[in-house]
Design a protein that fits this description.
InterPro entries: Acyl_CoA_acyltransferase, GNAT_dom. GO terms for molecular function: acyltransferase activity, transferring groups other than amino-acyl groups. There is one protein chain. With about 325 residues, the protein is an alpha+beta fold. It has 2 domains: about 140 residues, Gcn5-related N-acetyltransferase (GNAT) (Aminopeptidase), CATH 3.40.630; about 140 residues, Aminopeptidase (3-Layer(aba) Sandwich). Helix content is about 25%, strand content about 30%. It contains 6 helices and 14 strands. Strand 3 and strand 4 form a beta hairpin.
Length: about 325
């Protein structure tokens, strides 16, 4: 039995492995997720490992590097997903060996930490700490008090040349957020992998002022960014009108951005999940400050908006 980096000729077998590994879980999209994550800008083959036994691939784990902001500092971290072991080899240590190996490669690659969403009875044995992120949003009551210039905005699909403006808006929207994942400098980071989720750019007098991703059927807003407080109000008014929202609207924003909607009736929601785990591979004072804050109150957790490949599952 050997553990090695995946090769392109392994891709089909890896997909088949995840289909069988999650056959009884009600979800088999992990095979699709692995394919999509290979298209990410920072995809690193040495962080996508397989366990091979007599020519047969019996296990696979993948860590994809991303840039994170944590306590106003920038770090290179990773997201671990998927992890799968072929039926017949489960509960025989294959997954544990893969976890140990991918952590070792992640440290060599310079990652500061790895985040995942998983079983809190399994991953802590590998150094993962629970309740470090979860659900974070701002709930705003309708009708809106301020409708701003929402009716003057135009909406369209994102284009490649919008990337710089999108990243700048993201930075402003997530300023002072305790923890967040920074979208890559690629248009693919702003286009959903789900056909039901539409990405929209909002402009005022030819200038980009906002961005959303919205589920067309459920009308759930999965991503929201704006140039500033005024633009945020305009974009929200445009969304409420275009999607004919009538009750409440939940924005995927950290409560620090409640300062953008001070005239509205709103309530923050922050809840740390047992499944929201991070394994710190390096030491840094910022990590200790973040953990202490989360221990004191769920209000101090960051906001993890999963990269668009995860919207496929």
């Amino acid at each position: 039995m050997i553990i090695r980096a995946e090769k392109s000729e392994d891709y089909m077998k890896i997909g088949e492995l995840h289909c069988s590994a999650f056959e009884n879980s009600g979800s088999q999209e992990e095979s699709v997720l692995a394919c999509l994550l290979r298209q990410e800008k920072a995809y690193t083959p040495r962080l996508s490992l397989v366990t091979e036994e007599k020519g047969d691939i019996i296990g696979h784990v993948m860590v994809t590097p991303y840039t994170f902001t944590l306590k106003n500092q920038s770090f290179t971290g990773g997201i671990l997903a998927p992890l799968g072991v072929k039926p017949g080899w489960q509960k025989k240590g294959v997954g544990s060996q893969l976890m140990t190996a991918v952590h070792r490669e992640a440290e060599k690659s310079g990652l500061s930490f790895i985040a995942l969403l998983g079983h809190d009875t399994y991953y802590p044995r590998f150094g993962y700490e629970t309740h470090l992120f979860g659900e974070t949003s701002i709930r705003i009551s309708l009708p809106l008090t301020e409708k701003g210039r929402g009716s003057q905005l135009t909406a369209r699909k994102p284009l490649t040349e919008d990337t710089d403006a999108l990243q700048e808006m993201w930075s402003k929207t997530h300023a002072d957020v305790p923890l967040a994942i920074v979208p890559d400098a690629s248009i693919h980071s702003w286009l959903s992998t789900s056909k039901d989720i539409q990405s929209r750019i909002y402009s005022l007098d030819g200038r980009i002022v906002g961005y959303t991703r919205i589920h067309e059927r459920t009308k759930e807003i999965t991503s929201f960014a704006a140039e500033n407080e005024s633009a945020a109000k305009d974009v929200l008014a445009k969304v409420v009108n275009d999607y004919q929202l009538q009750e409440n609207v939940s924005l995927p924003l950290h409560p620090v951005r409640m300062d953008w909607f001070t005239q509205e009736t709103m309530s923050p929601k922050t809840k740390a999940w047992p499944a929201g785990m991070i394994c710190f591979l390096k030491s840094d004072p910022a990590f200790d400050v973040y953990k202490r804050g989360v221990e004191e109150s769920d209000e101090n957790i960051g906001i993890i908006q999963w990269p668009v490949p995860f919207e496929a599952i």
